[in-house]
Specification:
The chain is an alpha+beta fold. About 60% of the residues lie in helices and about 15% in strands. The chain is built from 9 helices and 6 strands, in the order βββαββααβαααααα. Strands 1-2-4-3 form a 4-stranded mixed β-sheet, covered by helices on one side. Strand 3, helix 1 and strand 4 form a beta-alpha-beta unit. It is rod-shaped, with a radius of gyration of 39 Å.
């Protein structure tokens, strides 16, 4: 089975549509870096029932990242409303009006439209929405979320392709510096011997010669203390493992996170053991390249 491409934790997608009642809706999904997976949904009133299923569906497809999903629905207030007379209020208003007509000579009878404008005579009658229709709306909106989620995954993979190329370049840089460090470190025993001879010559001023055997012992001791072969070997293994991870097709973010910490550890030890300015400079360049690698790898799912 073909490996999945590398995915970033950064992505964006949107999906909208129109519901049976004519109202429109829009999903907007965004994701950024996160240590784990955190899914947050912002839903209008009446859609709470779909929150948990949508979170569960997201968790099946994504491993890491802070994901926020916002649903916007443009619609009228829930339930269609119409005006209907309040019988008791209308009867009371009519009684008062007729009483006034009887008491005031020549007063015209009350007009219907005038009575209906009196406060409390008309009230809004709310028609409760059909539950089957509401279920159909939720189903349509959940289906649109699934489409938006596919779009978010595609967006994260597109970012992942770019990220993979960047990481490959940075690993090449680290590997090149590793090669320079290996070459420079090979000269350290000879450098120790030359420095030791120079120091002894200055101290003894030619009065007494130190046996070559003794010099060899001192150089061996110094070389052991500054031997960076193990660090370079481990760094070489880390580079190989990082390359393997980039082509493995897994959600490698956590593993790459841990591995770059090991890169940093080896580079720090290399610098601390270095006994030459050139090797120290290479070590510092190596640390800078590894730091860039670490920053970019933090974006990997």
């Amino acid at each position: 089975m073909a490996a999945h491409p590398l995915s970033s934790m950064t992505g964006f997608a949107r999906e909208g549509g129109t519901l049976a009642d004519g109202s429109s809706f829009l999903w907007e999904l965004r994701s950024v870096n996160g240590r784990g997976l955190d899914v947050r949904l912002r839903l209008p009133n009446g859609f709470d029932a779909i929150e948990t299923p949508l979170k569960e569906a997201t968790a099946k497809l994504l491993k890491r990242g802070n994901v926020s999903a916002t649903l916007t629905v443009k619609r009228e207030e829930r339930g269609a409303s119409r005006l209907t007379p309040d019988p008791a209020a209308l009867e009371h208003a009519l009684k008062i009006a007729l009483d006034l007509v009887l008491r005031i000579p020549g007063c015209p009878p009350p007009r219907a439209e005038s009575l209906l404008t009196l406060p409390g005579v008309l009230r809004a009658e709310v028609v409760e929405p059909d539950e089957a229709e509401e279920d159909a709306k939720r189903t349509a909106i959940a289906a649109a979320y699934a489409t938006a989620l596919d779009g978010l995954i595609a967006s994260r993979r597109a970012e992942g392709e770019k990220l993979s190329a960047i990481l490959g370049v940075l690993l090449d840089e680290v590997a090149a510096l590793h090669g320079l460090a290996t070459t420079e470190a090979a000269d350290q025993p000879a450098l120790h011997l030359a420095r030791l001879r120079e120091s002894l010559a200055a101290l003894l001023e030619g009065e007494r010669r130190v046996p070559e055997e003794r010099l060899a012992q001192e150089v061996a001791l110094l070389a052991t203390k500054s031997d960076v072969r193990e660090e370079l070997d481990r760094l070489s293994a880390h580079i190989a493992e990082a390359r393997r991870l980039l082509t493995s097709g897994d959600a490698i973010g956590r593993k790459l996170d841990f591995l770059t910490q090991e890169f940093v550890r080896e580079a720090n030890t290399l610098c601390s053991k270095s006994s030459s300015i050139p090797l120290t400079r290479i070590g510092l360049d190596l640390k800078a390249a590894i730091e860039r690698l670490k920053e970019q790898s933090a974006n990997v799912e």
